[in-house]
Amino acid sequence: MTLDFFNDLLNVDARKDQQKEVIKDDNKNINTTQQLRLFDIAKFEEELFINSSKSNQEQQQYSTSINAYDLMGCIRAALFKYFKIPVESFANKWLPVLMRSSIGRAIHSFIQDNTKQFTETEVYVKVPSLHFSGRVDAIINNNVLVEIKSCTYSDYKTIINSKRPRVKDFYQTIIYKYFLENYCDEIQEYCKSHKLKYGNAPKLNNYNFSNIQYIYIAHDIVSADSSSLSEALNTVKEIKKHLNSRHNKFFFITSLAINSQNDVVKDALLHVIDRIKEFNSFIESNKIPPLDHKYVNKKDCYFCIYNKVCKDY
To answer: Domain residues of the chain, as ranges?
Structure first.
């Protein structure tokens, strides 16, 4: 078999517009002819753009609260979302994020569906008085809060070497800890009076999380930190070697736990409480904070869907 053979095969794509294929319709027992059409990645990108815009717009339209990532992100972006400020386009600027989101949801389900170690999963955390909603991935008894996260191998390498969660993941769990420990009655009341579409009501009336556990799953080798595919593959090889993967078939899964009684967590709780207070003060005054507000994060501007309208407020 020669290289010319493969070139001939590849040339089929160039001639696809002139080719026809015959399809037999079993129901009508007739033959119909239509133009050969192959999957087009450029067309898929256009479709993804449209779907991304539609999905994000629907989320903003029906949302009546913010989530943990909103709270820990730029306060102006969170309030633009809450006040339903219109934008030119709701589509994600980096469309592969949609694929990663789908992979992440599948990973969550895979972990949750294949273990009996969790006593609760997908715990709904809705606090209407503070305009917050979210879902805790899992809880063990009343004292361990579990967060499942998918990540790139680049992030994964940093996590296993530092033995620390990513900063945004850390603060997300601190927010859940705060609300479940201090607003469980309100959460329970909301869950009882509303039919939940997603998630489950907390099983207990009170929680005291002495530990927070993070389960990280490396889902791909695509990362902005890698300048080439070979560099990304080398990252995976280093991780396998570090974890002695010959005896660890699940080298792409790791977990770490932190004691939530330490000073770092206590300081983080104070920071979270202050952010919640600031956010709700602007809701009550029906205002957008100034650009020099302490919780404005200009590092997020590039990917923010509100970056073009932000200057007008």
So the answer is: 3-38, 68-312
